[in-house]
Amino acid sequence: MSTVQENYQPKHTILEKVKAKLELTPTAMGGLALGIASLGSAWAMVISQDWVEPVKITSAAIASILILVIALKLIVHFHLFKKELAHPIIGSIVPACAMSTMVVAQSLFKVMPEVAPMLWLSAIICHIILLVGFIANRIIDFELEHMVPSWFVPPVGIIVAAVTSHGMNFDGLVYWLFIFGIGCYAIVLPAMLYRLIFKALIPDTALPTFAIMAAPASLALAGYLSITSQPDPLLLLVLAPLGVFMTGLVYIGFIRLLRLPFSPAYASFTFPMVIGATALIKLTGWLLINNFVWLARVTDNLAWIELIIATGIVSYVTFRYVFHYLIEPLLSTSR
Hints:
Blueprint: H1 2-7, H2 11-24, H3 29-44, H4 49-76, H5 78-86, H6 90-93, H7 96-107, H8 115-140, H9 153-156, H10 160-163, H11 171-198, H12 215-227, H13 233-257, H14 270-289, H15 293-334
Pfam families: SLAC1
Keywords: Membrane, Transmembrane, Transmembrane helix
Membrane topology: Multi-pass membrane protein
């Protein structure tokens, strides 16, 4: 009888444990969800047609689990949501969850054609709300030293809506979201470069966000090629080299970044690498259609290099997350 009583756990205790676990869930994990979902979509563009849906659905399922955990955390601990949105770094990466949901919606479009557009549109609305919240908090408490590359996420990240817009039938909305995103990039980039060059160094805790420097140009390129079949060659000539240059810069930065102690901010490494490969895959397709065969060979080789590196980075960050949040606690309790 005593054994039964000892083993019995009241329901409220279990709920408290779940709430405590949720409270410790890093919101930055949304960046990892975005990287995983986007990686599946990137591979789906280059693999055999038979494997396209399984790969997209698998990556979307994994990303969905991470998104749901973060969503539960922000609902159950709403005070944390308000606190994190007001934070100059964490607040800038919260919209990654909405971006992840857009990618998931596109990945599920063929199997859930009625649900996917509603999910996609809901994610866009959430992203806009988070963008407004981020801007409002930064206006109240603005300091140039607070700027880190993750500040690109709220205003420029909305271009993910363009990348994932195929079949959603919101062409007008997507066009203006793209214009807004690329306009914000043009405004924020000079300010960001000034801050990085002339102001205090980014602290080590936020340094992983430097990897996000690789994302905006490639995201803009991928978004542009997703919404038009007749892009302006001049804009391609600006975005493509800039995207490759920024990605190369982050590759060099990894020499330092990958030596940093693990933190949830490691998630910042994932999506920028994947979107670089995605943009080059889309660019290669456009070049081939327009008979720029020799240039298409160059971009195709670059795309494969970036895709392989992106796969390695996403796999590595996923392993570090699993080890830190699942394996290490199990090992510590078994001692």
